[in-house]
Amino acid sequence: MVTIWNDFLYTPLFNLLVWMYNGWAGGNLGWAVVYLTIILRIVLLPFSLINDYNRVKNQALYMEIKEIEKAYQNDDVVKKQEIRKAMKNRRVQPWAKVIVLGIQALVLVLLYQVFIDGLTGERIIEVLYPSVAWPGVMNTYFYGFDLGMRHSLVWPGIVGLFLMAEIYFNFRRFKGKIEKRDLTYFVLFPLSVFVLLWVLPMVKSLFILTSLIFSAILGNIARVFFQEMVKRRFVKLPK
């Protein structure tokens, strides 16, 4: 099991990271991590698109249920039947989201191992492929922040604020009256992510932030295309 982990997961990812560090990133490990994240998200693009399509369908389902509740507000029996029927017809594929999140979690663990094992010359030489040039002493600073630094407030804070903004705009678009549980989620989820990233190396925050930005851009673009497809079967989505 250890051999499989090292030979087929850790070593290939480490070499890809060093290869990008030597080339595209111009000797900046932070940008190498950003490029690695983008490449990973491009590889996972089919699953991400399925997940975005499911999200649009769920948003349409939410609006349809609201219409059903309004139309049958005086008949609870029919209302429940119509809601069950709508939920049965609007099936989604949750496995797509599981694959995207699962592979990203795997890469997070591998990046953690990279920084735990160290980036010293001796360690790098041991795992480098012959075709990948030795980078020498690696530059682990990204805009003045050490990628291996823990207990940083800045980058985990940026991730937390980004999540709060994303949740806020989603609530504004698809929620009518904000409930107490919505406010709890709005505060506690970003706060939990902030605390978790605060105790981990800063490279985790950079990876997650890059992935979140990619998801936000892809989600908005995909929504424009998928909305037209969903409109044929679902109620009109809010703009």
From TrEMBL:
Domain Membrane insertase YidC/Oxa/ALB C-terminal: 30-217
GO cellular component, one term: plasma membrane
Pfam families membership: 60KD_IMP
Keyword tags: Membrane, Transmembrane, Transmembrane helix
Topology of this chain in the membrane: Multi-pass membrane protein
Chief location bin: membrane
UniProt record, GO biological process: protein insertion into membrane
Transmembrane segments: 29-50, 94-115, 153-171, 183-200, 206-226
Compartments, record wording: Membrane
Keyword Phosphoprotein recorded: no
One MF annotation (Gene Ontology) recorded for this entry: membrane insertase activity
Highest taxon, organism lineage: Bacteria
Family, similarity comment: Belongs to the OXA1/ALB3/YidC family.
Designated name of the protein: Membrane insertase YidC/Oxa/ALB C-terminal domain-containing protein
